[in-house]
Predict the structure.
Amino acid sequence: MKPFAILVLPLGLALAATAFAAGESVEIAPLPEGSVSAEQGLDHWSRIYDVTSSPRCSNCHVGADNLPMWSGPSYGKTRPHGMNINAGESRIGAETILCSTCHIGSNGSKEHGAPGVNADWQLAPVEAAWFGKSSVEVCNQLRDPARNGGRSFVEIAEHLNHDVILHWAWNPGKGREPAPYSLQEHVNDILAWGAAGMPCEND
């Protein structure tokens, strides 16, 4: 599976699709560029960062050490994934043990059982590493085509809509806190931030 699949869409096109894991219908309805002020855009960014920095997202957005993390209130202290797991340069564990060995097609019923989703479980590409990074760092990273898979803000929203593994963040299984807000609200925040020109606090 390629780490980035780019879908080019006209800015004004509104699409709807099913968020399979979250069980909600997600609408991609871009706003006209410039229709959201920079100040409002920063408010939307703040909410986006609430999601990207949450354990459900950041734990797999790690660097070149290829170590997924365990963090968040339900895990106690922040630490690397147990059992000496290393996803390797493949980011799917091909060099040692595949992530899919334990991360199967659905969440288990046991507290903190291995999360599952009907997609290939893997770490985000190393270019998208943001575990432990500040809001300003992640903001500049997410709007940088060299580090976001060459995506526009509309394509970032589409990526969230179509990549089923990302939907798991809002349906993470027993004993885990879901990502804040909802998938639709997160998509809406990305589209509003984009319409504002993707502002960051260091602009």
User: Anything to note?
Assistant: Confidence is low (pLDDT under 50) at residues 1-23. The helical segments are 38-52, 55-58, 135-142, 153-162, 164-167, 183-195. Residues 38-52 form the longest helix (15 residues). The chain is about 25% helix and 5% strand.
